[in-house]
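hiii, so i know i said id send this last week but things got crazy w the move. better late than never?? heres the sequnce for the chain we talked about at the cafe, plus the structure i predicted for it. fair warning i was half asleep when i ran it
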Amino acid sequence: MNTNWFLFALAAPAIWALCNHIDKYIISKYFSGKGVGSLVLFTALSGLIASVFVGIFKSNLLFIGLGNEIVIAIGGAILVVAYIPYLYALEKEEASFVTALFQLIPVFGYVLARIFLNEQLTLLQIFASILVIIGGAIISLDLRQGIKFKARAFWLMALSSFMIAVSATVFKIIAIGENFWGTAFWEYIGGGIIGILLFTCIKLYREQFIVTINRGRSIVLSINLFSELLNVVAKLLANFASLIAPLALVWVVNGLQPLMVFIYGAILTLFIPKLGRESLDKKTLVQKFSAIIIIFIGVVLLFK
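okay and structure toks below
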């Protein structure tokens, strides 16, 4: 198996981790309790913008058959909707905890890929994947007040993770039978259509989005658009990696996202605390570095 897939897969969580901190900053500072609708609609809007560029530069690859176009558009709609429970979870919990629950994606992804793509992992790859997932889960735990099960956030992220896994599986099924850019184009179109429907049918989301625009906060709009551009790039990288490696392995590598969220959070805490904070007491650092060692071992074993 071509090891270049790992570099593409690794770049995706590195970018998504940055997006997580940007999302948390925007929700906490500007949209506390009322920003989910705005951010979801911005996500859909960014997909439409991306589809324009794909349409311009890859116009000869856009048409992949009406049936495939409808299916991948539905996958794109599911992906946009998946951000709704994620953002509601992010409103109440730390970014490092919420993103760690994305460890559920490779679990769902493995089952879906096994059923629909007949993908199989070796025993060593399964063991390595489990180590990465465990490491990501350990990073997320807040041990300062004992281990506490946060049911609301867990179920919201389970729903989000399942929808993301479904969308990724649909993308790979269509892309391997047609082409990458045509599949990406119709995925963006589907996300844009669901964004229009959310804007039209959900009054709260529509009001939140309009208020955001009318506020005239150029910095907020710029940050939003920048974050969504990064999200588009990360999704393209993850999708491309999934075409040259088993889908489950790609999402296991995405399990490094909590680690990167913690690293970015530590940097912000030390140098720009106004933009984000992460607990850096001795007990927390021991916990995080133990998790890092477990994750590192898991990643190394993926290539054995």
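btw The mean pLDDT is 82. thought thatd interest u
miss u guys!!
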